[in-house]
Amino acid sequence: MPVPASGNRQQAEERVTRRQEPKAPKEGPTGRGRRRIFPEYRPEFSGHTPRSMSIDGKTFPVKNWREVLVRTCEIANARGPSEFPKILGLEGTKSPWFSRNPGDLRDPVRIRGTDIFAETNQNANSIVLRSFHVLNFFGIDPKIDIELEK
User: Fold this and answer.
1) Using one digit for the tens of pLDDT, what is the confidence trace for 97-133?
2) Which of 27, 77, 79, 86 has the greatest number of beta carbons closer than 10 A?
3) Is 12 exposed, middle or buried (0-12, 13-18, 19+ CB in 10 A)?
4) 16: helix, coil or strand?
5) In this structure, is residue 140 part of a structural domain?
6) Is 113 domain-assigned?
7) Which CATH number do you get for residue 92?
8) Which class for 127: exposed (0-12), middle (13-18), buried (19 or more C-beta within 10 A)?
9) Is residue 99 a contact partner of residue 88, using CB atoms and an 8 Å limit?
10) How far is it, in rounded angstroms, from Cα 75 to Cα 17?
11) 7-16, 26-35, 82-91: range with highest mean pLDDT
12) 71 CB-contact burial (10 Å; exposed 0-12 / middle 13-18 / buried 19+)
């Protein structure tokens, strides 16, 4: 094994050992994916366009899937603006879902009334699932009724 330019052989072996250790499963709201948190969720939205969405009996017009996620975040923010920055703790295994720095995200959209951006570069099924996670995270019943274009 080559010795790195800085440090000794023991440090190099420790680095290699650390890299080979498997990562512990993530804990928290998104720890083991949708099957654990939303086992009844069956994706059916890809290839369709949303017209409106309803949360807690209130209907909101939407034009695309990005608006579904952003509107869900705005609803969560309206329920508890002081708690909303905790949304930054929701993240995927490969990339963040929310950030204050739009450069951290591929397709950021600002959540109205905040300095937080949402990642919207996802397919329809992932956007709906992420919206469920947001509602669940803030203690809101994660039920969204979505009217699709025919």
Assistant:
1) 999 999 999 999 999 999 999 999 999 999 999 999 9
2) 77
3) middle
4) helix
5) yes
6) yes
7) 1.20.1380.10
8) buried
9) yes
10) 46
11) 82-91
12) buried
| DSSP E strands, 62-144 | 98-99, 108-110, 117-119
Specify whether the CB–CB gap between 133 and 118 falls below 8 A: no
The predicted pLDDT at position 124 comes to 94
Which residue from 150, 140, 128, 148 is spatially nearest to 55, judged by alpha carbons?
140
- CA 83, 89, 92, 98 dihedral sign is positive
Give the full edge-to-edge strand order of the sheet including 108-110.
98-99, 117-119, 108-110
CA angle 133, 90, 29 (to 5 degrees): 55
**117 domain-assigned:** yes
Q: d(Cα 61, Cα 67) in Å, to the nearest integer?
A: 9
Domain that holds residue 117: 50-148
The tokens of 106 are what? 């591929």
Let me know if residue 66 belongs to a domain: yes
Q: What is the tally of structural domains in the chain?
A: 1
Query: How is residue 11 written in tokens?
Result: 């440090």
